[in-house]
Amino acid sequence: MPRCTGCRSLERHRISRIMFERLGSESFAAASAIQFSPDPTVDAAWFRSFELSVYGEPGGIDIQAIDRPDASYDYVGCSHVLEHVGDDRAALLELLRIAAPDGLVYLSVPDPIREPVTRDWGFAKPEKFGHWRVYGRDISQRFSRYIPDQPVLAYLGEDPVTGEWADAFLLPKSPARHRWIAERLGALVKPIAEAWT
What we know:
Blueprint: H1 11-23, E1 32-36, E2 49-53, E3 73-79, H2 88-98, E4 99-108, E5 119-125, E6 131-134, H3 139-146, E7 153-158, E8 165-172, H4 175-185, E9 189-191
Parallel strand pairs: 1-2, 1-3, 3-4
Antiparallel strand pairs: 4-8, 5-6, 7-8, 7-9
Protein name: Methyltransferase domain-containing protein
GO molecular function: methyltransferase activity
InterPro entries: SAM-dependent_MTases_sf (IPR029063)
């Protein structure tokens, strides 16, 4: 795999890291954050407070039922976790619930751009790393059903090392946060329904 020998990052990490640097990492200095999964997409030092949850480890949180109050975090990061949970609708609703009114939810799932439709097995498949599903391009319809009033923006970026492309999703909780993303990322980000057309 194209893993950095220094920071251990993969293509998806580098692509999303560039996206966050374009947003301006300094803009998170006063923000409280929670991240579900250990990855180098963001730097904990960017935030006023930073909590890491790894499911199955001590203190790990089930994202289908997050034991935190409403609107607890300005930034909620969830990278390559949603495909590992049985009820992804409950997980999405929970991630949004704990995000502040002007907060931001960051989501990443494996390669939905490469699959025409989502394949959901209804159980965790051992040979697929415990994934319950492989998301496809119809992920936009899934989001529309689950969170119809929540804007979902798709970012498509290129890894500067390998030239591979990967996507990430940003769910801004307020119109002001939506504008902030659009101003900084411009044509690199689109509403999810338009992203792959």
